[in-house]
Amino acid sequence: MAFNFIRAAAAGAAMALCGVGSVHAAVNLPALKIDKTQTTVSGLSSGGFMAVQLHVAYSATFAKGAGVVAGGPFYCAEGSIVNATGRCMASPAGIPTSTLVSTTNTWASQGVIDPVANLQNSKVYLFSGTLDSVVKTGVMDALRTYYNSFVPAANVVYKKDIAAEHAMVTDDYGNACSTKGAPYISDCNFDLAGAMLQHLYGTLNARNNATLPTGNYIEFNQSEFITNHGMATTGWAYVPQACQAGGTATCKLHVVLHGCKQNISDVQQQYVRNTGYNRWADTNNIVMLYPQTSTAATNSCWDWWGYDSANYSKKSGPQMAAIKAMVDRVSSGTGGTTPPDPVALPAPTGVSTSGATASSMAIGWAAVTGAASYNVYRNANKVNALPVTATSYTDTGLAASTTYSWTVRAADANGAEGATSAAASGTTLAASGGGTATCTTASNYAHTLAGRAYAAGGYTYALGSNQNMGLWNVFVTNTLKQTSTNYYVIGTCP
Q1: Residue of 46, 109, 128, 132 with catalytic role
Q2: Active-site position among 45, 46, 128, 465
Q3: Is 447 a catalytic residue?
Q4: Which residue in 55, 166, 199, 447 is the catalytic one?
Q5: 191 included as an active-site residue
Q6: CA–CA separation, 381 vs 266, rounded Å?
Q7: What is the pLDDT of residues 361-405, one digit of tens each?
Q8: In terms of Cα–Cα distance, which of 127, 168, 136, 177 is closest to 1?
Q9: CATH ID of 352-432, from 3.40.50.150, 3.40.50.720, 2.60.40.10, 1.10.150.650
Q10: How far, in Å, CA of 422 to CA of 248, rounded?
């Protein structure tokens, strides 16, 4: 502990010299030699939620993987501060994980986020302290369940056995492990940054425990990529010497996202310098990019509930697009390895339906040369959570005595989809027992309150069928027909 105190004092002295009021001018973010297939992201708290957003929305860029500390599922708040502070932090039992998975698939099919197939080979590292009183462990449990729909279980590490409060955990710097408070970095005798990076990248060289070169820290002009929108005018990066402009190495890139009340203005450079990432970066040629929020943002948080933009979790979200532009810039130097260009795949042929029951239908098609997987769409909505590697798929949860239309798209190894097949229609069988459906006519707002529908992105969707019912308000009215437990379609009863 004496060592920790001395180290913290020294760090404080250093930060006093090179903190917020540094006299040197910020530089433009350099273009470096980066292997673009080795780009990852991690974050704490609001940065954890933001890391999930970047990982999912820009899955082609962050296909290698993500680390999340005290975060939650993609689009957990659904644009609501009430949801953000309630179910996504304190009351995780209310998180509609299946709905969030459905929204992810829908948005991917619409092209507002990247194809979910990119996540199939991702590595994910999750951490939750058992004493975390801000983002309860149940929220991280829901995140684990969410990732189950897209990432193989073998690719996920979930550590939740350390008695840590809400903080980034280290093995030699910060508050006592059970303490909650600035700078939200805690000494828990566990090197979380190292564990995370080694899961994402595999075996790494031992970290550098010596004092890191001051010249490897770069303050860069963030306003080049975004102005306002809750982001600071400058950000920070740690660039190992071999990775600097003119260096010989082709390097990896890891984006690190601080939590609320952790930007440079709040805690000076403690998060940039003392979370453990840079020690591993220095000996393994990993460029560390530390984007920064401003104090104009709510509690200096990243936008994970819509305080800045309704599109906050999509590729078009201002903060999301800005970070992506930073990644593109720093990765634009010569010598890097880029992912292979996607192959334009033809549309599957021979799409047909068979084996109808009252609630399911089998869809089959001919194999497409060069396809790694397939995606199935019902009435233009993607229905498979994970890529389909066979040439058939059974669609379930359908309404009885209802006609549907299915199309299929082939996807390459990067998840890029080809052309859409011709549609095949089929009608489910009548429900057994001669029972009758129940219909309810009400406003979209009332439907969501009653659990017959859910709201996402300002629109209302029928529970189960995910049919778009229009704007989420008290003025738009729909009739929903319940065809089975927790399954509703737009329609009327005979």
Answers
A1: 132
A2: 45
A3: no
A4: 166
A5: no
A6: 44
A7: 999 999 999 899 999 988 877 888 788 999 999 998 888 888 889
A8: 177
A9: 2.60.40.10
A10: 51
